[in-house]
Design a protein that fits this description.
Blueprint lengths: L14 H23 L5 H8 L3 H29 L1 H20 L4 H29 L3 H32 L4 H20 L13 H24 L3 H23 L13 H31 L4 H25 L5 H21 L4 H28 L6 H34 L8 H9 L1 H9 L3 H40 L5
Helix pairs in contact: 1-5, 1-6, 1-7, 2-16, 3-4, 3-5, 3-8, 3-14, 4-5, 4-7, 5-6, 5-14, 6-10, 6-11, 6-13, 8-9, 8-14, 10-13, 10-14, 10-17, 11-13, 12-13, 12-17, 14-17, 15-16, 16-17
Length: 504
Amino acid sequence: MTITETVLPVSPLPGRRRWVALGVLMLPVLLVAVDNTVLNFALPQISETLRPTGTQLLWVIDSYPLVLAGLLVPMGAAADRFGRRRLLLLGSAGFAVVSVAAAYAPSAAALVAARAMLGFFGAMLMPSTLSLLRHVFADRQERRTAIAIWAAAFGGGAALGPVVGGFLLEHFWWGSVFLLAAVVLAPLLVLGPLFLPESADPQARGVDPLSVLAVLTGMLALVLGIKTFAKDGVSLLAVVTFAVGVVVLTAFVRRQARVRHPMIELSLFRQGGFSGAVLINLLSVVALVGFLFFASQDLQLVHGLAPMRASLVLLPGVLGMIVAGLVAARLARRVRPVVIVAGGMLLSAGGYLLVAVGSADLMLLGAAFAMVAVGIGAAETLSNDLILSLVPAEKAGAASAISETAYEVGAVLGTAVLGGLLTSAYARAVVVPPGVAPGEAAAARETLGGAVEVARGLPAEQGVALLTSAQEAFASGVWLTALIGALLVMTAAGIALATLRRAR
C-alpha cells in the first residue's frame, strides 16, 4: 500500500509567524530532549555527593522518561480535548518549578521523586509541540522541513545534553543541570500566548481513568522487569514484573479497541508504514541513549577527562545529527524513504561495531558516536514525517503522543536494557582488593563512579588495584553493550526494509 497524506486546512498563521511559532515550539523540545541525557555527565558527581546504589543511580535517570512515557498518550488525549497550547503552558510552568526542587535535592530518593514529577509535567509538553506543529504547517513541503527541524531538535538535544551538562559541571555543581529548565522555559511562557495558536479536537471526549492507570502501571511493571533481568538475570521478581507489565498493557490495548473514544487510534497500526516508523523511532532512541550512557562515563572515569572536555569529544556527532536531519528532508524529494532510513540505521550499527571491535581510543569513540548520531538523525526525520502524514489533523495530538511515547520508551529502555547490562557486567567483573571495608566494597561494586570515589580514599597500592580492575570491568561491559546496540539498530534497518518499501 502506498502511503498517502491527509489534506490539511489552511494554516492559521502567516508565513513569518509560522516560523517564529516553530522557534517557540523548539524550546520545550530541546529541553525535554536534553533532560533525557544531560544527567549522564553528572552521574559521577551525583554518585560522589548523594552516594546512590547502582539501582538508585539507574532510577535517577529512568524515573523521568518512565513516567513521561506512561503519561504521554493520556496527555495527548487531554491536549486534544482541553487545548494543546493550554496544556503546553501548564506543563512548562510545572516543569520549571520542579526543576528547581530537583537542583537542590538532598538525597538520591528525593532526586528520583523530583525526576518523576518532571516526567509528569514533561508529558504535557511533547504531544502539544508536535500536534501544534502539524496544525501550524498545512503545506506538505513546509511541514516536512518543520518536522526535520523538530526531529533534529529532539535528537540533537539528546546528543547535546552531555555537552550542556559538561559545560555546567565544569563551572557549577551537579544541580545546575536542572536549573537550565527555568532559563529555557521562561521565554516560552512569554512568547507562547503571543505566537502559538490554540487548537483542539472538537470531537474529543474525556480521558478514561482506567486506561490511564493501565498504561502507567503496565509501563512501570514492564520496565522494572527488564531492569531487574538486565541486572540480576532470570529471577522471580524479573519474571513476575515483566509478565504483569505484558498482561496489563495487553488489557490496555484491548480496552482501547472497545471504548467509544480511545486514547490510541489502534487502526493506525494496521498500516505497515505507521507501525514500522514507530518501531524505528523506539529502537533508534534506545541506541542513542544507550551509547551516551556508557560514553559519558567512559570519557570521564576511564579516560579522566573533565566534563567539558569530555563533552567536546561528542560535539561533532551532535552537529552531524542536526545536519543529517535537515539533509534527509531534502533528499526525501528524490530518494525513497526506505533507502534513507535503512541506510541511516546501518550507519549507526557501524558506529556501535566500531566500539565493539576497536580500542578505547578517544578519536575512535568520537567517530563511532558521530556514525550513530548521523544515522539516527537522518532516519528519525523521515519516520516522524511518515507518522504525521497518515493522521487526520484533528487527531494530531494522539498521533504525536504515539510518536513521543516511542521516543520516551526508547529512552527508558536505553538505560534499562543497555545501561542495566553494562552495570551487571561491571558488577560481575570488578575485583575489590582485600582489606577494603564492606560498605566501601559494596559501593565499588555498584558503579564505576563509586569505585573511583572509593579508590581515592585507599592507600596507593590498593587504590590503583581497585581503579584498574574497575576500569577493565567497565570496558568489558561496554564491549557487550556495543554488540547488543549494533543488533538493535540492524533490527531497525530490517523493519524499515520490510515496512517502508512503498512509502513515498
